[in-house]
């Protein structure tokens, strides 16, 4: 009888642990929203990295193996807030767009003007 009681207690403990972890995972994902990024520029962007404002860790390339062609869009899931976005174009040139507002809206548009301002600020 005692070996069966140990099994029941082990299974009950495991179920309790799994149940306790579910709300934590759901809460971490709860605050995320999907934002659509549009490439309304004339340039192909090969890599897009997003980091919370003034954070040095960029994380993975949001495009994965894809490239971001003019006229296309992609979705990114973020907790609403201010972010820095690092863009790498087809020639390998890198620039950082600082203070992108991913709070209230549901989209961010990359234009030639955004890239020009990014290039000017990145060259200083």
Q: Can you offer a commentary on this structure?
A:
The protein is of the alpha+beta class. The protein folds into 2 domains: 1-30; 32-123, Immunoglobulin-like, CATH 2.60.40.2890. The protein has helices at residues 2-30, 112-123; strands at residues 33-39, 45-52, 73-78, 81-89, 94-102, 107-110. The strands form 2 sheets. Strands 3-1-6 form a 3-stranded mixed beta sheet.
Content of β-strand: 25-35%
The tally of strands reads 6
| Helix vs. strand class | alpha+beta
Level-2 CATH architecture of the largest domain: Sandwich
Structure keywords:
124 residues; alpha+beta; Immunoglobulin-like; three-stranded mixed β-sheet; three-stranded antiparallel β-sheet; 2 helices
Task: Give a short overview.
The chain has 124 residues and is an alpha+beta fold. The chain is built from two helices and six strands.
Fold topology:
Blueprint: H1 2-30, E1 33-39, E2 45-52, E3 73-78, E4 81-89, E5 94-102, E6 107-110, H2 112-123
């Amino acid at each position: 009888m005692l070996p069966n009681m140990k099994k029941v207690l082990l299974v009950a403990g495991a179920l309790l642990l799994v149940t306790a972890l579910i709300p934590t995972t759901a809460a971490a994902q709860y605050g995320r929203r999907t934002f659509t990024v549009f490439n309304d520029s004339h340039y192909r962007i090969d890599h897009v990295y997003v980091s919370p404002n003034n954070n040095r860790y960029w994380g993975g390339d949001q495009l994965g193996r894809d490239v971001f062609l003019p006229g296309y869009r992609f979705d990114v899931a973020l907790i609403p807030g201010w972010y820095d976005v690092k863009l790498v174009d087809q020639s390998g040139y890198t620039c950082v767009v600082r203070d992108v507002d991913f709070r209230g809206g549901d989209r961010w548009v990359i234009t030639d003007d955004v890239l020009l301002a990014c290039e000017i600020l990145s060259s200083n």
